[in-house]
Amino acid sequence: MENTMKLVAAALLAGASTLAFTATVQANADGEAVYNQACMACHMTGAAGAPIRGDADAWAPRVEKGIDTLYTHAIEGFNAMPPKGGQMGLSDEEVKAAVDFMVEPVM
Ligand code: HEC
């Protein structure tokens, strides 16, 4: 009985921290909106070899490089990945939020 209570408490805590994380990201910049506007054309279709959002196999070796490397590559460009997805009007924070949104399903 006591163990069940602990499990329930742990599950509630995990849920609360996930919500807090989501809220923090959205407070800075709307990653989903940036993704839909600037990243989706390639990252939903896999155009030019872009890793598709939610494709765990495609993202595993990239996530291993660390989120800071992914931020840098998204901002400065990486092979066929254009700097800021070609939208130079985006702030670094907006691009980072879009990266967070992109890797969120596979983290
Ligand atoms: C014109 C197509 C295109 C657009 C638009 C685009 N990407 Fe990419 N992206 C790519 C391609 C292609 C790769 C794979 C590059 C490689 O691994 O050689 C990539 C790779 C990445 C990676 C992984 C980098 C790494 O180090 O493995 C991230 C993160 C990323 N893109 C983020 C973004 C974000 C954020 C946006 C929108 C702001 C965006 N991309 C828009 C084509 C695009």
TrEMBL record:
Keywords, in A-Z order: Electron transport, Heme, Iron, Metal-binding, Signal, Transport
Pfam families xref list: Cytochrome_CBB3
Signal peptide: 1-22
Stretches assigned to the Cytochrome c domain: 26-106
Top-level lineage group: Bacteria
Claim: Transmembrane is one of the keywords in the record: no
Listed PANTHER family: CYTOCHROME C5, PTHR40942
Name of the protein in its database record: C-type cytochrome
Organism: Billgrantia antri
